[in-house]
Amino acid sequence: MRLAVCDEQGLFASVLATALDQQGHLTVLTTHEPAVLLSSAAEARIEVCVLDIVTARPSAVQVAEQLARLDPRPAVVLLTDSCRDGVWDAYERGLFQGIVNKACAFAVLTAAIERVADGEQVSEGWPPPERRGDNGVVDALTSRELEVLRLVVQGHSTQLMADELGVSRHTIRTHVQQILRKLGVHGRGKIARVAAAAGLLDAVRSPTAERRPR
């Protein structure tokens, strides 16, 4: 399978491309610049593009729109921890054949790539479309906040969460406060109920949402 990897973090793009090659794929293009991807995609005859663009322009949605005009058209897998700026609308329109949370394990990504190449549309590490709703909660939480949310739901103490994630208690408290703010609740006791209503528990309890090695 001929792949392209385009991620704003050039080092991450290179590491990911190497890992995909080791899985038997052929990464023919690796870049951190959307313009390079767009100028080379047709000639490289890319089958699947693994993409993450959050701050640069053109945006991930705009890149997907331009890739959709190519013949042959590559499938696009958005590998990201931030689904904003019309990403889910683009998914519903078929511009993204896959959306994978960066908190997912590498094996989940490779399986998603293969499924997309077979013509499926895949969402991994995010609640299914009918559970996402319109409140933007899922989009607002970062991958690390999803990890902390998972541990809170499992009843872990601040110290246990700090040990699990290898960070300080202060960092954990900061993440918890951000989660509470984004969920619009006060106190950890209400987190699980609100997260379930927002469709978040499918992601944080699923084995597909385990941490990916960095």
UniProtKB/TrEMBL annotation:
Residues 134-199 form the HTH luxR-type domain. InterPro entries: CheY-like_superfamily, Sig_transdc_resp-reg_C-effctor, Sig_transdc_resp-reg_receiver, Tscrpt_reg_LuxR_C, WH-like_DNA-bd_sf. Gene3D superfamilies: 3.40.50.2300, Winged helix-like DNA-binding domain superfamily/Winged helix DNA-binding domain. Residues 2-117 form the Response regulatory domain. The modification 4-aspartylphosphate is found at D52. GO terms for molecular function: DNA binding. GO terms for biological process: phosphorelay signal transduction system; regulation of DNA-templated transcription. Keywords: DNA-binding, Phosphoprotein, Transcription, Transcription regulation. The keyword rRNA-binding does not apply. This is DNA-binding NarL/FixJ family response regulator.
